[in-house]
């Protein structure tokens, strides 16, 4: 705890992609020119009431912070843009299939933008609401169609080797 309180080292690594909890994530910017996108994130929420709230958003940036301690410590933070989850206005749940539609034009700035990488998941039930006049916006598809096999192999090598863009 003391090491965390003293703050991270001055070196921070930024990544375009990251694999955690069995899911492969890309930043929104990195995935914008790909045929499939893996920038959608879901955090399973829980509350003291009987209703649990899941939070949906887009992955903007992936940062790895390193801490100087007796043993080397690091943590990965994900900066996200969260969607407004006001019932009836921005989310719908299909009654038969339990699919969640999220209106991606309703961004909610109240929530903190960072999450720990271990909190991340990609909700298989998530589907984003699209309008006909909004076809030029990114389509958040959490499935990897293997249309870009060469890119995927390069990404996996970078992710496994832990290479990133070092920033001070």
Automatic annotation (TrEMBL):
<feature type="region of interest" description="Disordered">
    <location>
        <begin position="118"/>
        <end position="168"/>
    </location>
</feature>
<dbReference type="Pfam" id="PF13952">
    <property type="entry name" value="DUF4216"/>
</dbReference>
<dbReference type="InterPro" id="IPR025312">
    <property type="entry name" value="DUF4216"/>
</dbReference>
<dbReference type="InterPro" id="IPR016024">
    <property type="entry name" value="ARM-type_fold"/>
</dbReference>
<protein>
    <recommendedName>
        <fullName>DUF4216 domain-containing protein</fullName>
    </recommendedName>
</protein>
<feature type="domain" description="DUF4216">
    <location>
        <begin position="64"/>
        <end position="122"/>
    </location>
</feature>
<feature type="compositionally biased region" description="Acidic residues">
    <location>
        <begin position="122"/>
        <end position="161"/>
    </location>
</feature>
């Amino acid at each position: 705890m003391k090491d965390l309180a003293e703050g991270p080292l001055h070196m921070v690594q930024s990544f375009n992609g990251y694999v955690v909890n069995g899911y492969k994530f890309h930043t929104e910017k990195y995935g914008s020119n790909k045929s499939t996108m893996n920038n959608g994130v879901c955090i399973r929420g829980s509350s003291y009431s009987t209703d649990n709230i899941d939070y949906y958003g887009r992955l903007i940036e992936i940062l790895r912070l390193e801490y100087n301690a007796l043993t080397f410590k690091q943590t990965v933070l994900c900066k996200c843009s969260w969607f407004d989850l006001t019932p009836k206005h921005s989310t719908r749940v299909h009654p038969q299939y339990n699919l969640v539609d999220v209106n991606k034009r309703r961004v909610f700035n109240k929530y903190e933008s960072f999450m720990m990488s271990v909190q991340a998941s990609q909700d298989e039930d998530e589907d984003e609401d699209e309008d006909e006049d909004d076809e030029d916006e990114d389509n958040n598809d959490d499935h990897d169609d293997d249309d870009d096999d060469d890119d995927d192999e390069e990404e996996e090598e970078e992710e496994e080797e832990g290479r990133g863009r070092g920033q001070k």
